[in-house]
From TrEMBL:
Residues 428-503 form the AMP-binding enzyme C-terminal domain. PANTHER family: LONG-CHAIN-FATTY-ACID--COA LIGASE (PTHR43767), NONRIBOSOMAL PEPTIDE SYNTHASE PES1 (EUROFUNG)-RELATED (PTHR43767:SF1). One of its GO terms (molecular function) is oxo-acid-lyase activity. InterPro entries: ADC_synthase, AMP-bd_C, AMP-bd_C_sf, AMP-binding_CS, AMP-dep_synth/lig_dom, Anth_synth_I-like, ATP-dep_AMP-bd_enzyme, Chorismate_C. The keyword Ligase applies. It comes from the Bacteria. It comes from Verminephrobacter eiseniae (strain EF01-2). Pathway: Siderophore biosynthesis. Residues 11-377 form the AMP-dependent synthetase/ligase domain. Keywords: Ligase. Signal peptide: none annotated. This is AMP-dependent synthetase and ligase. Residues 702-956 form the Chorismate-utilising enzyme C-terminal domain.
């Protein structure tokens, strides 16, 4: 034990003993104990100057990084209390934690893994008056007014009044799998014991190199013995941003890592990875596995695959820790979860009446001890049920104890399935499944069932060979499992959905089971076919025109996630999401039910992810950022604030045509409320239109844009590429009313498509002058490149003169011709050669304040080609990028000051019958948090001039800017 030292003082003592030893490694940065101590001292002074004081709470949501470690120690040195949030948590959880902890400061990174935390921080700062400071580890940007960059917080070291060892040092998150996590107050003294006693038991010393692959905010990674235990012994901590084998295993080789901790799903992946990943792992001495029960088969395979010892860890952030010992017999290490850390740990195993069960029997685990809490933070009602009158903590775990005192975890009380009056242990069924041929791992949940109360659903991960799912029940029966314990439903998953702390998310499994409800009759040797969920539908007559009614509905929707898409004579609105398919910045395709595709090209992965979705007649609403093109064309360095592509299958839809509304919902119970909403808005007077607003001309922007145009024209004259589209932004007022602006703008525009969407704090609307691709259910493909522009003034004679000028302008004609030529080449790669044709060649289309040269290129998909292959070839639209596309994309990235995001990407509909409709995002307005802006570009060829291209962007912006409206102030109370 450390005695009376507080955690902030611990680091000072470690630095005095190990000053020049390496404490932390973070990518290419290495710092010694002495350097870490100095950084913490100076940061503590900077935080004090910011207003943080002893006893204040501070939300820390940082990845595995030096920033995390220095922030936590600086807060501890001040006597402030870190509230450790997981990097994967989002607004719902963080909002609840802020309400509970009332932090005065919030620490976030700028961007990690394609997610921008700054809009989240801005949202929390607006919602919670207690948050006086937001600190960004990285660039603050414009997202959070008044935010501070972590690197700028500095001051001369001072002496601070130390807290008492019995004071709360930090607030950890409960590792439960349900609801918003509770906060666990750990004191300086009990937490110091937690990691020092653990470090001694696990044999850590100065030679230890600990790799943190799980989130450092997790108690397991932080202090069991984890980061703090390693530092306490003078060892080195290597901080990994990812637990992915292809990045973490080379780190083990490079840094000669000796110790690390995994959770069972990750351990499974690491064992599998050794079949192809060949990094030198010979330095590894010990791998800990905890967080949930480790299957014995996996426990036996892991030491062989990784070439080191295994230690099972069972515990909780609330306190009690159990470890298998390093010298335990193999049988104990494989089949048990170890014994308590402290001789003072008290353990009882009781029945439902709190009576001790006989030795060896299963019961609920109760515990109290020197480092186990006596209550959750600000949770008196929950504490009444979580602690006994004599201070034992009800862990909720079902365990039994072997003769040597080791605990074997059999499951959770909440994981008992109540089926037809019988209580079934999910862990018992999982154990039986784990011994079946072809089953790599299994998870079992109880799913609400009208007849049985709960039905048993088994999820299995297959080995390399297919599983005979049809014979699953018989195989379990042959192993002696009682008939009433046999799964009623069986599903295959390749990846487990995980909670923020890395446990299998059984609530998500229940949702997946409901989505995939089985049909009942199954062929003996086949997997059960998922039942097809059908949208319930209701039609109703409406009197309001579709555009006006769509705007009224958008104004009054309670959902924070919807997409409105105008296609032909239909305005279609998708609400919320039952299933998402996304493409990450690294090209990984993910489905929100946990499946992921990494080896496939991104668009092929999307096609795979959409295959087999158990909904009949689904329509996906989606969007793709312009930077998706970097992946498609093999340009590195792609990053973004959100997935590069997102498709959402809605829980409900409203499709509007003249005189009729079609309402669709997966849950028939939703239809009545939606019908009421449509009827109310059909009868209302519509949204009140706010005041017009003008966007001021910015001479600085004009000068900068013309310079970029000149630079690009010079490159084209040197034959670097033939054409490029360079864009610029125009800032709009934060009080912009998106719905009213869309409504007014649409009345004065004649787009090929229009859209209005909201996804949390991101909103956009636009009037698409062309489509990226249109594909019908029979595989007919068409696209509509527009290139060549003149203004539309409203004066008939002037507009006709400009039209003739456009048709005679050699520069505009050449620009259009090369666009059509490239589109034909792209279409030839996916269409039958004899089906290609160009129609409407060089027609002039009127689009709001602009008229364009336009042509349509069409063809029939060739055998073996699908809609996503066509999308991959045609995205981004040539009229938004340039020619050749790869060189144009590179030019855009060099000449434009930041990523485009949705601008010149697309908003799209994808139907279950194979149809796709993707609208080019131009003539649009955007909102992210408090920032609103417009964006427009001009097509440049070698003969372009900066003045003309500036004028073209002004003409295009005007089709949106002249119709902007401000929010109408709320009436006085």
């Amino acid at each position: 034990m450390i005695g009376d030292a507080t955690l902030g003082e611990c680091l000072r003592r470690w630095a005095s003993r190990h000053a020049h030893r390496t404490a932390l490694v973070d990518e290419d940065t290495r710092i010694s104990f002495a350097q870490l101590d100095r950084r913490v001292d100076r940061l503590a002074a900077g935080l004090h100057a910011l207003g943080l004081r002893r006893g204040d709470r501070a939300m820390v949501q940082l990845p595995n990084s030096i920033g995390f470690v220095t922030v936590c120690f600086a807060l501890l040195r001040l006597g402030a209390i870190p509230v450790l949030a997981m990097p994967t948590q989002r607004a719902h959880d963080i909002d609840a934690l802020c309400r509970l902890a009332e932090p005065v400061a919030y620490f976030v990174p700028d961007e990690v893994g394609g997610f921008d935390y700054r809009p989240l921080a801005a949202e929390m700062a607006r919602a919670h008056p207690s948050l006086r400071a937001v600190v960004i580890d990285g660039g603050a940007g414009p997202h959070v007014p008044g935010a501070h960059e972590l690197a700028t917080l500095d001051g001369d070291p001072q002496e601070w009044a130390e807290p008492s060892p019995g004071d709360t040092a930090l607030l950890l998150l409960s590792g439960g799998t349900t609801g918003v996590p509770k906060l666990i107050p750990r004191t300086h003294a009990d937490y110091a014991y937690n990691f020092t006693a653990s470090a001694d038991l696990c044999g850590l010393d100065e030679s230890t190199v600990y790799l943190a692959v799980l989130p450092v905010a997790h108690n397991f990674t932080l202090a069991c013995p984890g980061v703090l235990g390693t530092l306490a012994q003078g060892g080195t901590v290597v901080l990994s941003r990812t637990a992915s084998c292809d990045e973490a295993m080379p780190l083990i080789e490079r840094e000669r890592v000796t110790h690390l901790a995994l959770v069972p799903p990750l351990a499974q992946l690491w064992v599998q990875a050794r079949e192809w990943e060949d990094s030198d792992l010979s330095s590894l001495r010990l791998v800990q596995v905890g967080g949930s029960r480790l299957a014995p088969l996996l426990a036996r395979r892991l030491p062989q695959a990784l070439g080191c010892r295994l230690q099972q860890v069972f515990g909780m952030a609330e306190g009690l820790l159990c470890y298998t010992r390093l010298d335990d017999p193999e049988d104990a290490i494989i089949h048990t979860q170890g014994r308590p850390l402290s001789p003072q740990d008290e353990v009882r195993i009781v029945d439902e009446h709190d009576q001790d069960v006989p030795p060896g029997e299963v019961g609920q685990l109760l515990t109290r001890g020197p480092y186990t809490i006596r209550g959750y933070y600000r949770a008196p009602e929950h504490n009444a049920g979580s602690f006994t009158r004599d201070g034992y903590y009800r862990t909720g775990d079902l365990v039994r104890r072997d003769p040597a005192g080791n605990l074997i975890v059999e499951g959770r009380i909440k994981e008992q399935i109540q089926r037809g009056g019988e209580k079934i242990s999910a862990a018992e069924v999982e154990f039986a499944l784990g011994h079946l041929p072809g089953v790599r791992a299994a998870a079992v949940v109880g799913v609400p069932d009208a007849l049985l109360g709960e039905r048993i659903c088994a999820f299995v991960q297959p080995q390399d060979t297919p599983i005979n799912m049809g014979g699953l029940r018989e195989a379990l029966r042959e192993r002696g499992l009682s008939t009433f314990k046999l799964p009623d439903q069986a599903e295959v998953l390749t990846h487990w959905p995980l909670t923020p702390v890395g446990k299998i998310d059984k609530h998500r499994l229940i949702a997946i089971a409901q989505e995939r409800r089985t049909s009942g009759a199954t062929a003996p040797s086949q997997a059960p076919a998922p039942a097809i969920a059908r949208y319930a539908e209701r039609r109703m007559a409406v009197a309001t025109a579709p555009l006006a009614l769509a705007a009224r509905l958008a104004r009054n929707l309670s959902s924070q996630h919807y997409t409105l898409y105008e296609h032909g004579s239909e305005w279609s609105i998708g609400l919320d999401s039952v299933l998402d398919v996304t493409i990450d910045a690294d090209g990984t395709v993910r489905r929100s039910n946990g499946a992921a595709w990494k080896a496939l090209p991104p668009c092929a992965g999307v096609a795979q992810a959409l295959a087999g979705i158990p909904f009949e007649g689904w329509r996906a609403y989606g969007r793709a950022d312009f930077e998706l093109a970097h992946l498609i064309h093999g340009l590195g360095g792609t990053s973004g604030t959100r997935p590069l592509l997102k498709l959402s299958i809605p829980r409900s839809e409203i499709r509007l045509r003249s005189g009729e509304a079609l309402i669709r919902a997966l849950d028939p119970a939703d239809l009545a409320a939606m019908e009421t909403l449509v009827a109310a808005q059909d009868a209302s007077s519509g949204p009140e239109i706010g005041q017009p607003v003008e966007i001021a001309r910015d001479s600085g922007t004009e000068h900068a844009y013309k310079q970029r145009v000149a630079a690009a024209v010079g490159e084209m004259q040197a034959h670097a590429y033939q054409k490029v589209i360079l864009s610029r932004t125009a800032e709009a007022p934060a009080a912009l009313d998106m719905v009213s602006s869309y409504l007014v703008g649409r009345r004065f525009n004649t787009p090929a498509r229009s859209f209005l969407l909201r996804d949390g704090d991101f909103e956009a609307y636009g009037f698409s002058p062309e489509t990226v691709v249109e594909i019908d259910a029979s595989g007919r493909v068409s696209t509509q490149p527009l290139a060549g522009t003149r203004a539309l003034s409203g004066d008939t004679a002037k507009d006709e003169r400009l039209r003739r000028e456009l048709l005679a302008d050699a520069k505009e004609i050449a620009e259009h011709a090369v666009s059509v030529k490239l589109t034909l080449q792209e279409m030839a790669e996916v269409c039958a050669p004899d089906s290609l044709r160009v129609s409407e060649f060089m027609d002039v289309y009127r689009r709001g304040s602009v008229q364009h040269l336009a042509s349509r290129v069409a063809g029939q998909l060739a055998p073996g080609r699908d809609a996503w292959r066509a999308f991959e070839k045609l995205f981004p639209a040539v009229t938004a990028s340039g020619i050749p596309k790869r060189e144009a994309l590179d030019s855009i990235r060099r000449h434009e000051p930041g990523p485009r995001g949705l601008y010149s990407g697309c908003v799209m509909l994808v139907d279950s019958n194979g149809a796709m409709d993707a609208a080019l995002v131009l003539r649009s307005a955007f909102r992210s948090g408090d920032r609103c802006w417009l964006q427009a570009g001009a097509g440049l060829v070698p003969s372009s001039t900066p003045d003309r291209e500036w004028t073209e962007t002004c003409e295009k912006l005007e089709s949106v800017s002249r119709h902007l409206r401000l929010r109408t102030p709320a009436p006085p109370q």
